Amino acid sequence: MAAFVPALPVSAADKPLDKAAVEQIVRDYLLTHPELLLEAMEALEKKQQVEGEKATAEALKTNRQALENAPSSPVGGNPKGDITLVEFFDYNCGYCKRTHPERSAAVKGDGKVRVVYKEFPILAPSSREAAKAALAANKQGKYEAFHTALMTHEGRLDSDAIRAAARRVGLDLKRLEQDMGDPAIDAEIKANMELAQKLGIRGTPGFVVGDTVIPGAIETEQFIALFNATRAAKKVGG
Fold first, then answer.
1. pLDDT at 11 exceeding the cut of 80
2. pLDDT value at position 57?
3. pTM for the complete prediction?
4. CA–CA separation, 212 vs 229, rounded Å?
């Protein structure tokens, strides 16, 4: 007959901890060492930044043609420039209006920058009306003049202000209104919206030069530094 061996008592150290006990241990440890939370947050932010930069770089590579050479996007500055500045903007954006003279001065002073305009009307219904009017003005060869007229308008735009700006730059208003109904104009705006989303541009203004995305307003000196850095990078890359 086999002998009966009674079960030995399990020590507290050998007992599996339940969820509540584990959570309490972790909580107590973090309260004792709060610096670990800061380290964890910094590590997370760094990881997210690296992942974001990789995603942006891939998006730029994949969408370079649509970004810089879409036939429907107006081109200004020096069309034969050696670098391209892409600008996303809204005519009702105060930061865009304040940045406009800074960007214009940098582009004019450089003389070798090609500018691609991406209408990005996100702030108001009149923003979309102004964007459509600007793209229609491009059909009359007066895009940049009209763009400047809208950017220098003080306050919010409305239909009357848009028409007044069109008259000031000598646009044919009847033709302008007809061209604003062209489905290709709506398609251009939609494409710009999708492109901005892919690049992580969620507000205005937004700029792209080479492999750099600038989300926000910058000054003339910063534009100049950006142009120089882009040229230097092109030389290194061959």
1. no
2. 77
3. 0.79
4. 10
Helices (H) and strands (E) counted in the chain, each on its own, are 10, 5
Q: What is the pLDDT of residue 4?
A: 44
Q: What gap in Å lies between CA 72 and CA 135, rounded to an integer? A: 9
> Is residue 126 included in any domain, yes or no?
yes
54-75: b or e for each residue (b if 16 or more CB lie within 10 Å)?
eebeebbeebeeebbebeebbb
Element (H, E) at 84: strand 83-89
Q: What is the CATH number of the domain that holds 218?
A: 3.40.30.10
Structure confidence at residue 5 (pLDDT): 43
Contact between 176 and 141 (Cβ < 8 Å): no
How does pLDDT run across 167-210, given as a tens digit for each residue? 999 999 999 999 999 999 999 999 999 999 999 999 999 999 99
**Closest among 100, 94, 99 to 155, alpha carbons compared:** 94
Tell me how crowded residue 140 is: count the other CB atoms within 10 A of its CB.
17
Cα–Cα distance between 215 and 203 in angstroms, integer?
A: 7
Closest C-alpha to 136, from 161, 162, 154, 109: 162
Could you tell me if residue 9 is inside a domain? Answer: no
E strand intervals along 90-232: 113-119, 206-209, 212-215
- Give the count of domains, the chain: 1
Residue 7 lies in a domain: no
* 24 in a structural domain: no
